[in-house]
Amino acid sequence: MKVNMFDEIRRNKIRSSFIMSFFLVLIGLLGGILGFMYGSWIFGLVISLIIGVVYTIIVFNSGDSMVLKLNRAKEVTKKEYPHLFHTLEGLAIAANIPTPKAYVIEDKALNAFATGKDPKSASIVVTTGLLETMNRQELEGVVAHEMSHVKNYDIRVMMLTAVLVGITVLLSNFLLRSFMYSSGDDKKGNIGIILVLIGLVLAVLTPLFSELIKLAISRKREYMADASAAVLTRYPPGLASALEKIKNSMPLKNANRATAHLYISNPLKKTKGFFATLFSTHPPIEERIRRLKAM
């Protein structure tokens, strides 16, 4: 059965919105229970808000430059890589956004990613291995995928997700420390006991839940970017063919878990099994190829 590209984009936007909403509710619960431990749930919400604002400012102002440095990406010129720039410029016009800056990673692995706060500050990074291996249609498919992350503001969503994960981990640590140093008799009554138990469970499990939610958002956004890339190029087989080659690529030499979710394909060493799938930064590449071929 043929898949409508625009329906695929719409479904993934809805799913991602639900996941992000759940994240915000989780932060509210942690903040409220933390405040309850100190006598006021409002106090907890205010503290979580302050932490969130400060953390967001830091990440949004320096997050993209940190990501580029961490991955050893080097900004390149049109004279060095004319074909890459022509592809970027053409697809940026098709997407109706400013042309992102071009970066290259010296690595034989086949991979790429996008970063930035918004389309005006965006950068698209590709490996030298990808540039040397892909034909014109395949390179267009990969760049269109990353351009879609920029156009759809996935780059901002993933930065926001990193902020939310950081906040939940911080609040969980505060909550655990509060339980450790609490006298145990300063909160009486059934409601207090229930809230304390809920808070304890959340404090222990929230870091795990947060990581799973971040990965779930990343996987949904990859499907959405694939569908958007097909809209931009009007040629889904180009990206499908590129993913076939990327599927058998070697791991990236300087890959790390902190930024693995940004890449078009998992840059880390591939592992198999249930838990590997559960904690995967990307959906199965075979399923992505199948969906593209069905479009």
Characterise the protein shown here.
- Helix content is 67%, strand content 5%.
- The model has no long low-confidence stretch (mean pLDDT 80).
- It has helices at residues 5-37, 41-70, 82-95, 128-133, 136-151, 154-181, 190-233, 236-247, 274-278, 285-294, and strands spanning 74-75, 101-105, 112-115, 123-127.
- The protein has a four-stranded mixed beta sheet, sandwiched between helices.
- Helix 1 crosses helix 2 (41-70), helix 3 crosses helix 5 (136-151) and helix 8 packs antiparallel against helix 10.
- The protein contains ten helices and four strands, in the order ααβαβββααααααα.
- The chain is elongated and about 65 Å long.
- It has one domain (5-71, 153-294).
- The chain is mainly alpha-helical.
- The termini are close together.
